């Protein structure tokens, strides 16, 4: 089961994120997914937030650095590359490309993503884009 779950997460990043195949969400994600990284739950909420992300970062690409699975969970360490073309958390578009890291934890149920937790290095991203300074 762990290998099947890892294959699903590869598809999540390579096809859904990188190739913009949002229709794949119906195949990979439960209708009542509990997305702890989002403001709300459910597949439709995920799709809405995905659309918002693409308006802000229209060229986003994800590269899996590590993929670890055990039982019903998969952990992915991912490097994202994107251009901030839209307003993000009150910061105007920088129109510059940036690379930042993230870690996602997925829990599977009945072969689909049932829960997701996500951590992103948004502080580092905002610094690289010139929006903030740590000095």
């Amino acid at each position: 089961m762990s290998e099947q779950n890892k294959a699903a997460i590869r598809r999540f990043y390579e096809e859904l994120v990188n190739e913009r195949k949002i229709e794949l969400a119906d195949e990979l994600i439960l209708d009542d997914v509990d997305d702890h990284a989002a403001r709300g739950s459910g597949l439709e909420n995920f799709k809405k937030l995905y659309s918002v992300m693409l308006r802000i970062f229209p060229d986003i690409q994800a590269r899996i650095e590590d993929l670890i699975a055990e039982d019903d969970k998969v952990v992915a360490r991912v490097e994202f590359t994107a251009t901030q073309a839209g307003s993000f958390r009150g910061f105007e578009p920088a129109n510059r490309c940036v690379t930042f890291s993230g870690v996602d934890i997925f829990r599977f149920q009945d072969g689909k993503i049932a829960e997701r937790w996500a951590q992103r290095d948004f502080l580092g991203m905002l610094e690289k884009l010139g929006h903030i300074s740590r000095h």
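The two ends are 47 Å apart (CA to CA). The first strand starts at residue 29 and ends at 35.
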